[in-house]
Structures are given as structure tokens and as C-alpha cells.
Please model this.
Amino acid sequence: MNRAGLDANLAGIASLAEPTRRALYLYVQAHGAAVSRDEAAAAVGVPRHTAKFHLDKLATDGLLEIEFARRTGRQGPGAGRPAKLYRPASRELAVTLPERRYELAGRLMAGAIADARTNGIPVAEALSRAGRQHGGEMAATALLETADSPTREALLAAARRVLDQEGYGTRTDPAGLTLANCPFRALAAEHTTVICSMNLAIMEGLLARLDQLHLSAVLKPAEGRCCVRLAAEGTAAG
Model:
């Protein structure tokens, strides 16, 4: 997640700290259909103008969506103005610090299981293939970002931004790049071999398309960091 995405999610979650706003949000969520400010105000027991203020704030923060519709079903002249209605937003909010990417892990694993069933290959092999494909997609983002300045320094900076957005928390060192955070930490603690192999495949897919960086992915588990390191050519994995 990039900084803008994190800020937006934090703003949305912080918006629910206000008790009345939280109660209105929970009412709209539970209702199952778009509601008017009058309905929300009556359900929560607050004045109409108070409900309007908080509902509009929830919409501004991305937790609700606004639509307009005539509740009477009448059309044409004399039908009156459409009512302003609120419904739950389609976006989902999640914040984990340090950042975790369990949805990504689930998506890669589900794809790998489907691939294994379709093609009759071991799930571990399919997961490695899915990881390398995702790494290649990450590399494509870095390459696109540096299309106008394809120097090694620019590409390394772009690769680090992509890795940081994926939650790996890169840190430079004399031996290459340390991935200071594992986006799948809780899964890695219970299924170390599976998750570390997936992480390795992701990094191999990334570096296969970024060979100008002269880095290689190596398994080097250590406390407080990802199990994979990106080692510079001619240095020890460290």
C-alpha cells in the first residue's frame, strides 16, 4: 500500500472513533439498502441535521456512498426532488502496522490451487509459478516508472518503491537489499516453508526482469526481517 492509500484508510478508520458517526455507519451497514438521513436519524436517535453532518463526513472519508432516488416512485413534474440516500461503500478498509498483505497471499494460494487442479501439477510448484508471475508484474511497474530514465540507479529506486508498497520495507546495506518486513508474517510463523518459498519465487520473478540490478534472491531467514534477501553480485548473502 502506498502512502496515499494508507492515509486514506487511516482517515476512514479514524472517522469511526466518533460515537454518533460510528452508530450511523453501523446502521447503514446493517440495513442492507440505501437509507435517507431521516431514517438514519430516527434509528440512531439524533436530530436530522446531526445525522446529515455525520453521514456526509462518512461519505467524504470513503465509508459511505451517496445516491439520489425518488422514494415515491412518481416521475415527471410535481414528483419532487430526488432524496439523498446513503449506502455502504464498496471499498474495504484495512490497516496493519507493520504492513501485512494476507489478501495477496490468499489470492496467490487460491490461484495456485486452481492451477494445480487444472494442470495436474503439485501445489507447491503452482504456488512458485504464481509467485514468480506476481514478481514479474512488480518488475513491470518499476520498468514502466523508469521508461524515460532507464539507469541502474533509477531502476533500483523504482524497484525499492514497488517493494515498499508491497510491504517489504527495503533497507540498503553493503551486501545488497534487506527486506526488513515480511508482509505475510503470521502465515510464515505457522507455515514457514510454504511462505518462504513463495517469497523467494516472488523475488526471483522480480529480479528475472530486472537483471540490470545485478541482484539475486537468496533464502536467509533471520529474526525481524523477511526470509529472503536480495544479494548484490560478488558479495556474501550475509
Remarks:
- The first strand starts at residue 35 and ends at 36.
- The longest helix spans residues 123-145.
